[in-house]
Write a structure and sequence with these properties.
Layout (H helix, E strand, L loop, with lengths): L4 E4 L9 H15 L5 H7 L4 H9 L5 H22 L6 H10 L3 E5 L4 H10 L8 E3 L12 H10 L6 E5 L2 H9 L3 E5 L13 E3 L7 H9 L3
Parallel strand pairs: 1-2, 1-4, 2-3, 4-5, 5-6
């Protein structure tokens, strides 16, 4: 079999980070003297901060303000994640199984680079990943395909040989726009929200390397 790649979203796919991100946004809102908008969090989870913050503020914001608030929110997130973050059930086994079969592995996420550099050693993923691509590494974010295309480029694998694991509609759309096969995880969204995914699973623990080979070759 030709060399293949598996590219994983981070939040909601590899890690159950939603409660930690929610707590970090709540902390930022408290510092701004406003209440946390739970509906806004649900609608925007997985998107880039530069898209979320103007909605949070209820107005357009200059880039320097967005960057300042984004940096503060992510600092709050890392403080909380240090003691609370862990891999989703079955994630490590799937990553290790794919690596053992010669798959090249990457993370493609809208999270800032500082978070990726903090999280990957925290979770012991350094030795498994061939690339990590974050918010600052691309000009356009999901549902644009840039983050996944950049991950594929860094791994040296053409898009048709890439399998993308995503829990968000924008991520599935990004994978499809990049000419890749998307596998949807039902972490935060109902099946109909992940239209276009080749297959849907509840968790990474429900997936085997054999499944991945079949999805990519069209045998399943």
């Amino acid at each position: 079999m030709e060399v293949c790649a598996a590219i994983f979203d981070l939040d909601g796919t590899l890690v159950d980070s939603a409660p930690i991100h929610a707590a970090a946004w709540a902390g930022l809102c408290a510092e701004l003297g406003q209440a946390m908008d739970d509906d806004l969090f649900r609608r925007t989870f997985g998107k880039a901060n530069r898209d979320i913050i103007p909605e949070l503020l209820g107005r357009p914001a200059p880039l320097d303000e967005i960057e300042r608030l984004s940096d503060r929110k992510e600092a709050l997130y890392r403080e909380l994640a240090a003691s609370r973050l862990g891999l989703m059930d079955g994630a490590r086994a799937l990553l290790a199984g794919l690596a053992a079969e010669g798959w090249r592995l990457a993370i493609g996420s809208s999270t800032p680079r500082a978070n990726l550099d903090f999280i990957t050693p925290l979770l012991g993923l350094d030795g498994l990943l061939g690339a990590t691509v974050g918010m600052e590494d691309v000009a356009a974010h999901k549902p644009a395909p840039d983050v996944f295309l950049e991950a594929a480029r860094r791994l040296g694998v053409p898009p048709p040989r890439c399998l993308v694991f995503e829990d968000a509609p924008a991520g599935v759309q990004a994978a499809l726009a990049g000419g890749m096969t998307a596998i949807g995880l039902l972490t935060h969204h109902p099946p109909e929200a992940l239209a276009g995914a080749r297959a849907l699973r509840r968790a990474l623990g429900d997936i085997t390397p054999a499944d991945c080979r079949a999805w990519l070759t069209g045998a399943a």
